[in-house]
Amino acid sequence: MTEKPLNNSPTTAVINLNQSPPRPAKNRTLKRFLKHRIAIVAVILLGLISLISLSAPIFARYEYDAIDLRAGGESPSSAHWLGTDRVGRDIWSRTLYGGRVSLAVGVGATVIATVIGTILGAISGFYRGWVDNVIMRITDTVMTFPSIVIMLTLAALLPRSLLNIVLIIGGLSWPSVARLVRAQFMSIRESEFVLAARCLGVRDRRIIINHILPNVFAPLVALITFSVGSAILTEAGLSFLGLGVPPPTPSWGNMLESARNLNILQTLPWMWIPPAVMTVLTVLCVNFIGDGIRDAIDPRLVI
Amino acid sequence: MLKYLLRRILVTIPVLITITIIIFGLTEIAPGDVADFFISPEMEMSAEQMDAVRARFGLDQPAPVRYINWLGNVVQGDFGFRFTDGRPVRDVIFRRFGATILLIGTALTIGIVIGIPLGVFTGLRQYSFWDFSLTGISFLGISTPAFVTGILALMVFSITLGWFPSGGMRPVDRDPTLGTTIHHLILPSLVLSLNYIASFMRYMRFSMLEVIRSDYITTAHSKGISRTRVTWRHTVPNAILPVITVVGLSIPNLVVGAVFTETIFSWPGMGTLYLDAVLGRDVPLLMGINLMIALFVLVANILTDVAYAVVDPRIRYD
Predict the structure, then answer these.
(1) What is the ipTM of this complex?
(2) Using CA atoms, how far apart are residues B246 and B103, in angstroms rounded to an integer?
(3) What's the rounded mean pLDDT across residues A46-69?
(4) Contact B151 A262 (CB under 8 A)
(5) Are A195 and A137 spatial neighbours (Cβ–Cβ below 8 Å)?
(6) What is the pLDDT of residue B34?
(7) Nearest-by-Cβ selection for A152 from B27, B151, B278
């Protein structure tokens, strides 16, 4: 968000390649992360959530779209652990499958954002000049304009599908990555090992990919972690408004959409409490992990 | 100062132009033919008749020409007409604008008034019990989206406890008064402000910790100035500076939060209107609201920068 982290973050990245072997620095980072107790709890919890979501077919007791009209709107019981919705679909199964979708969207969108952001940031920071100017103006524009507004417009105009949601979220979340990568590139390109590589006649592309890029990843990890959290929230938000993942595929967001109906909100709380709890818990875990990573890499950094 | 303001506005113009291109471009990539909105689905239309419709509305022109035409109209205050009921987009937006400003303004005020003092409080007590618990709660506040807190608040405070109305802006059976408006406003604005209380608190706390470590605070202490005076005259005024930017940067997100909060509490603002436009694929309304949001955000950004320049004269002379 602020300019500050961009200026003081590269220190660790530069040090761990410039001086002595890189191993000890990495171990130190890991050790510092392990000291962050809440982050460790979050890793375990998130691991558990991901594990049961990914193996949903094993833990789910019904198909996520199995309709059973005779068992509609039932409260939690031994047959349906978290009850059923109005058409008798099992909420426990839907929550598990929904987790799969929500996590996939979170990770998928972040991968896209990271790739776009890294490429643009690298070009911008390495070549400077007018290329940098153009890319940064685009970045500023995307950053000023609340991206969910563009997402809503796109979600309204494009056909609804899981892939489109991932592309829309990923395609609009790259500016913060681009800015961080650019700042890193601008400082690292001035260091001696890049100069040395240049003197040896190494080509630009090789310098960017083999020499500078590996040093950028450490500070980027925390930011990437946070963007997984915000991508999950964005998907949930879009789906909550009825513009995200199309039914019958469950996602935590479109399960929450049912709570917009005052009747369901009041009489069938088991329909929306599980996805709400899972969304908040997952994002909380992701944010704690991000916080832990950030503290471990550079205690002074704030994103 | 005037020069700074002028320069700041000039820098914004290319961004605004880019945004109008994006807004226009978004509707271009949409599948389907806009001309379909102008004809009744029951009517048999020949290809020639369709072409006549297109020509009448200028839809046969190439995209850049249509963009210029659209921009020209927008500059003159003509946002076009809604697809759904043919009313002028400008009137529809302006009727809803006030309600959203009221909601956003209240939420932002609550966020500042509660969040910043909490940040000062925890910043002065790093690693204390209060610091840990409030920072922990703020993490929850940041990680919980407005639509989750919204439905929880709706469930608890209006349906179960019945303290607040479940939606809308005015009572059904009476004329709205100041009292009823506030009564309707409390729940949605609190829900919207939660994220901002949490984030302003975190930034203020961080900023306090930075300033406390600086040399001039040590100097102030060693001069024998009392603790309270150092806090309120030396630490807080300096620590609050970067937070001004954070407050300004949070305005775009506030607009987004308003879409969710308004939807949950059926608040008759731009958020619900926007969702109507999105669900009804009402392209002129969509473009109009997008443009209004862009303008609103850019003006907010300029005001933030100006506010920063007023409190920190170094910025002006860059």
Answers:
(1) 0.79
(2) 19
(3) 82
(4) no
(5) no
(6) 65
(7) B278
The amino acid at B76? Q
Q: How much is the CA Rg of chain A, to the nearest whole Å?
A: 22
Query: CA A47: distance to chain centroid?
Result: 15
Q: What DSSP letter does each residue of B92-143 carry, written as one string?
A: HHHHHHHHHHHHHHHHHHHHHHHHHHHHHHHHTTTTSHHHHHHHHHHHHHHH
Helix (H, G, I), strand (E, B) or coil at A84: strand
What are the distances in angstroms from CA B30 to CA A162, B27, B162, B223, B314? 18, 5, 44, 67, 47
Side-chain-side CA neighbours of residue B63 (13 Å):
9
Closest CA to A205 of A129, A128, A133, A119: A119
Of residues B151, B259, B279, nearest to A265 (C-beta): B151
* Closest chain A residue to B159, measured at CA: A266
Nearest to A59, CA basis, from A106, A104, A108, A98: A98
Q: Give the number of C-alpha atoms closer than 13 A to the C-alpha of residue A124, restricted to the C-beta side.
A: 23
- Measured between beta carbons, the chain A residues lying within 8 angstroms of B259 are 148, 152, 241
CB atoms A149 and B290 under 8 Å: yes
Q: In A234-255, which positions are buried (b, 16+ CB within 10 angstroms) versus exposed (e)?
A: bbbbbbbbbbbbbeebbbbbbb
Residues in chain B within 8 Å Cβ distance of A266 = 155, 159
Q: Which carries the bigger pLDDT value, residue A31 or residue A229?
A: A229
Task: Check: CB of residue A288 under 8 Å from CB of residue B139.
Answer: yes
Burial class (CB in 10 A: 0-12, 13-18, 19+), B64: exposed
How far, in Å, CA of A103 to CA of A109, rounded? 10
Q: At residue A173, what are phi and psi to the nearest 5 degrees? A: -105, 5
Convert the pLDDT of each residue in A169-185 to its tens digit: 998 889 889 988 998 88
Chain B contact for A183, CB < 8 A? no
CA dist A103 and A124 (Å) reads: 31
Nearest to B252 among A144, A260, A291 (CB): A144
Identity of the residue numbered B210:
E
**What three-state secondary structure class fits A139?**
helix
